[in-house]
Each structure stands twice: as structure tokens, then as C-alpha cells.
């Protein structure tokens, strides 16, 4: 009959619709599963990249720490060698002064200028160096205090030594500043006075900041102090040709002190050059 045929067709259409719904649900489930798998894959990839980056960063940090340790070790070695050479030259020259006799004014000139430049002024410079052993535990303010105390004593020794030599030449009717050694020493004395003045300006840089910027006062102190120190060490090197040396020791001893003084000058100025470079970078453009 007709109603029975209509019912059969309706039931078939419902079955077809249910099948479509079922297949649609299956497809959506598959898509959801694929999306989840892709998301999980992306997360796994990202986690893997993060792990690789962490490993790479830790390796670079370890490598950098290793380089810093090697650098600190090299600084400590060179600093030790520097102090050994300072001690050798000072002890050797003091022995020569003892042989020459401290009753002579010229002997005191040699001894005081060597003490002022080669020992005290050098130690006052290298105490700011990061590889310097005896000043590593000092704070920066303590280093500044020790620095100016040592340098004041060094200035006193140099000025007194040069004054004694001038007095000795005056009483002996000898010409003043007639050699390369004496001329270089005079130039060093001029820069010593200049360094002392701008050293006071650097010490009170905060109080004087309205008149002059602290970076300029410190930079001028570094530069004039470096010139003063280098000229003083050059004057000492030129003094190795004097009678007090070649009459009381052998040529090999003079050559040793000549080489040691040059190396001490170079090694002692490493920290100063680094500081001057950083100060120049801080200058306003």
C-alpha cells in the first residue's frame, strides 16, 4: 500500500542521514586527533629547540668561564713575574749603591730615584690591576687611599733625589742637565708636578664637578701620570750607562736590569691603558 511505501522511504532516508552524521563525526574526530598530534609535535619540537638552546647557552657560559679562568691565571703569572723583576732590579741596584758608598750624594740620588720610580710608583700603579695579588681584596676606596699614600712617598723620594743631585752638581761646579738622562729626568719632574696637581683634582672630583667634569680630571691624571712614569723609567734606563753601574758590576748585570726595567714598564701600564681606553669611550660625543 502507499502508506507502507512512504514509511519505507522515510526510514531509508533517516538511515542515510544517520550514516552521513556518523561519517561526519568520524571525520571530525580524525581532524581533532590530527590537530592534537600536530600540536603535540610542535610542542615537542619547541621543547627540543629549547633544550638545544639551553645546552648551547650553558656550553658557551662554561667556555667563557674557562677563558676567564685562563685570563686570570695569565694575569697572575705576569703580575708575579713583574714583581720578581721589580725586586731584582731594586735589590741589585741597592747592592751597587752600598758598594759605591752612601756617603756620596750621587749614591743617594740613584737610590732615592730608583726607589721612587721603580718600586713605589710602579706599585702605586699596579695596585688597580685586577691581577695584582696583594691589592685584590681591597675595595676601590681603599685602593685609592693606598694609591695616593704610595705616590706621595714616591714623589718625595724623587724630588729629594733630584734636589740632592742638583746640589751635588752645584757644589762640584758641574754643568746641569747636560746629558740625555738629566734632560729626561727633568721632563719627568715637570710631569710629576702636573700629575700631583691633577691628582688632587681627581681625588676631589665630586666636590669639583661643577667646575670640571670628573671624567676629564681623572683622564688628565691618568695621561700625565703615564707620561711621568714612562719618562722616569726611561731616565733610569739611561742611568745604567753611568759609572756607578759599569764600575761596580759586569755588563751582563747591566743588560739584565735594562731588559727588566723595560718589561716592568710595559707590564705595569697594561691596566692603565685599559682604564684610559674605557675613559675615552665614556667621553661625551
Automatic annotation (TrEMBL):
<keyword id="KW-0249">Electron transport</keyword>
<protein>
    <recommendedName>
        <fullName>ascorbate ferrireductase (transmembrane)</fullName>
        <ecNumber>7.2.1.3</ecNumber>
    </recommendedName>
</protein>
<dbReference type="GO" id="GO:0046872">
    <property type="term" value="F:metal ion binding"/>
</dbReference>
<keyword id="KW-0472">Membrane</keyword>
<dbReference type="GO" id="GO:0140571">
    <property type="term" value="F:transmembrane ascorbate ferrireductase activity"/>
</dbReference>
<keyword id="KW-0479">Metal-binding</keyword>
<dbReference type="GO" id="GO:0016020">
    <property type="term" value="C:membrane"/>
</dbReference>
<dbReference type="InterPro" id="IPR006593">
    <property type="entry name" value="Cyt_b561/ferric_Rdtase_TM"/>
</dbReference>
<dbReference type="InterPro" id="IPR045150">
    <property type="entry name" value="CYB561D1/2"/>
</dbReference>
<keyword id="KW-1133">Transmembrane helix</keyword>
<dbReference type="GO" id="GO:0140575">
    <property type="term" value="F:transmembrane monodehydroascorbate reductase activity"/>
</dbReference>
<keyword id="KW-0813">Transport</keyword>
<keyword id="KW-0349">Heme</keyword>
<dbReference type="Pfam" id="PF03188">
    <property type="entry name" value="Cytochrom_B561"/>
</dbReference>
<keyword id="KW-0812">Transmembrane</keyword>
<keyword id="KW-0408">Iron</keyword>
